[in-house]
Amino acid sequence: AQSVAQPEDQVNVAEGNPLTVKCTYSVSGNPYLFWYVQYPNRGLQFLLKYITGDNLVKGSYGFEAEFNKSQTSFHLKKPSALVSDSALYFCAVRGSSGYSSASKIIFGSGTRLSIRP
Amino acid sequence: SQTIHQWPATLVQPVGSPLSLECTVEGTSNPNLYWYRQAAGRGLQLLFYSVGIGQISSEVPQNLSASRPQDRQFILSSKKLLLSDSGFYLCAWSLGKTGLSGNTIYFGEGSWLTVV
Which of A82, B5, B13, B103 has a Cα-to-Cα distance from A101 of 20 to 30 A? Predict the structure, then answer.
């Protein structure tokens, strides 16, 4: 069965410091991995995804994520945090084996990122 | 470019009343469509998904139903709302071609439902 874990409910970082939001996963076959951001009372916005190829994926707003197959992780990173990065972040995974075009994407429970000035 | 519209944005309904949330997608054909519920500002629960007109798959037994009367229209309904139906409902879409599990899911802005 597919699963995704975000072990931290909240991450606190000072503005200008690097940030990491952790995500680990479990799927059958090759994983398709996604990161989304949600601002208060809004829908989820797509940040980036890993399908295949380079393990380091770059996305919107200066975010990047590194796919690590041996550790089954897909941590979200940013070299220098901004106060405006404060939001709820979701990791998601979809497996590639036995899929259909509507194979389910599983979301993590979310990590609240708080950037202090 | 593709856009997704979801309405109403907020809704306060009494227990036992009906519900209808609507979602439409523009700029693409034959999308996969989804309804999610988010409780307490955290995790997402997939309620329904559809790969075509009239084709609805339900993920969890509940007081809600979904319909897809047109290719790019997805409706979430209830005949009688319960207090536990309160939450943030999100419609979403992805490209509908078989074999593309890497397709990104794109979300609408959500609908806040409060059942009183």
Answer: B5
